[in-house]
Amino acid sequence: MTGRIAFQGEPGAYSHQACHDARPDMEAVPCRTFEDVIEMVRKGEADLAMLPVENSTYGRVADIHHLLPESGLKIIDEAFVRVHINLLAVKGATLADVKTAMSHTVLLGQVRNFLQEHGLRREVGADTAGSAKIVAEQGDKSVAALASELAGEIYGLDVLARHIEDKQDNTTRFLIMSRQPDLSRRAGKMMTTFVFRVRNIPAALYKAMGGFATNGVNMTKLESYMVEGNFTATQFYADIEGHPDDENVKLALDELRYFTSYLEILGVYPADPLRDER
């Protein structure tokens, strides 16, 4: 597939890495915010959006669950990306030259062991790729960035140390979204993502979930969040295994509809092969 895929962040960000890995034949287009990513696709200026939804270490990405239902876009794929953190410095620098490591505050917290071992001072940058860009522009051998290898390639930095993250299984899950859903595919394992609100009756959530249990549908995620800051209005985000056309999934969703005031399917897509490994 040719075309454009939008992501949030500077070139070389981990979202850019996700685009590079999952859609290598598409032009990756950086955007300032998640809202900008969504708007580019809605306007037809990009074909797909690459949006991070959760990280194995830090949980879900803030605000993303609010944006997905309102975006008007549909999930057509998921991508699991290993977060490999690297120490990047200007050409000719050595590890002995480096005194300060710059990156996003979240990434700085994921390399504590390495920083302590080498006595490096932490400096908070706007984001990972942005830190790499700053290091390249400053040209100071004593300051290095913590970012992806792709960022190093883009900004002409040397990799002084590879894969220095404390947790070797740190993984971010991304959703690939389009203006139109794709319900035609059938893979070994399909996933369906939806959001819903239960009716205001006793035990509504318990009863709504019963249909998935009785019909043998595996629910891999169920998260709640407030709607528009209202403490009494709760919306739920769910992932299940299966396709809405599967008989057991159809029966479970029919039962769910009976107990809900709102239900929207956000996407039906093949499970990433790395899902089972995670």
TrEMBL record:
Reaction(s) catalysed (UniProt annotation): prephenate + H(+) = 3-phenylpyruvate + CO2 + H2O
Pfam families per UniProt: PDT (PF00800)
Keyword hit for Aminoacyl-tRNA synthetase: no
Prephenate dehydratase domain residues: 4-179
GO molecular function terms attached to this record: prephenate dehydratase activity
PANTHER family, sorted: PREPHENATE DEHYDRATASE P PROTEIN, PREPHENATE DEHYDRATASE-RELATED
UniProt KW keywords: Amino-acid biosynthesis, Aromatic amino acid biosynthesis, Lyase, Phenylalanine biosynthesis
Pathway named in the protein's UniProt entry: Amino-acid biosynthesis; L-phenylalanine biosynthesis; phenylpyruvate from prephenate: step 1/1
Domain ACT: 193-270
GO biological process, one term: L-phenylalanine biosynthetic process
Enzyme nomenclature, EC number: 4.2.1.51
Highest taxon listed in the record's lineage: Bacteria
Listed GO CC annotations: cytoplasm
InterPro entries: ACT-like_dom_sf, ACT_dom, Preph_deHydtase, Preph_deHydtase_CS
PROSITE patterns named in the record: ACT, PREPHENATE_DEHYDR_1, PREPHENATE_DEHYDR_3
Protein name stated in the entry: prephenate dehydratase
